[in-house]
Amino acid sequence: MDAVTTAIVAAVLSGAHTTEKVEQSSVDATGAVNESYQALKEALVERFDGAPALMQAIRQLEGTDNPRNRQMLHQEVKIMRADQARAVILAADALIEQIQRQPEGDRLLLQARTWQNFS
């Protein structure tokens, strides 16, 4: 799976798309993931003139993490060639780095890459 799709799926698995409150000890780390996730989405919107189909795929994945929604996101990333846009790749890499710093970051990234063990 490409880095853009992996980063988005792992962020969704981490809960970066929600506004739930977290323990104080996790606030800084979670905030960094949330900020990186928002930066990636902003890079996609900016680079691809709003990217309505791609943003719809992200919203659907945020609503329900399942194989169909992951596949739809992956297809939209490929169709738009978002995995080849430098600014988007840099934002995805930054998000992956922030996720790796999380206590369960490696597990989230593995889960995002394998398309198995969906929550």
Q: What tags apply to this protein structure?
A:
119 residues, mainly alpha, 0% strand, globular
Structure description:
The protein is mainly α. It has one domain (3-114). Helices cover 73% and strands 0% of the residues. It has six helices and no strands. It has helices spanning 3-14, 24-47, 52-63, 67-80, 86-100, 105-114. 35% of the residues are buried.
- Briefly note the structural class of the backbone: mainly alpha
Which parts are unreliable, with pLDDT below 50 for 5 consecutive residues or more? 21-25
Q: Which bin fits the share of residues in helices?
A: over 70%
The total count of helices amounts to: 6
Could you say how many structural domains there are in total? 1
Which band does the percent of strand residues land in?
A: under 5%
Question: How is the main sheet built?
Answer: none
Strand and helix map with partners:
Blueprint lengths: L2 H12 L9 H24 L4 H12 L3 H14 L5 H15 L4 H10 L5
Helix pairs in contact: 1-5, 1-6, 2-5, 3-4, 5-6
Quick summary:
The chain is mainly α and 119 residues long. Helices cover 73% and strands 0% of the residues. It has helices spanning 3-14, 24-47, 52-63, 67-80, 86-100, 105-114.
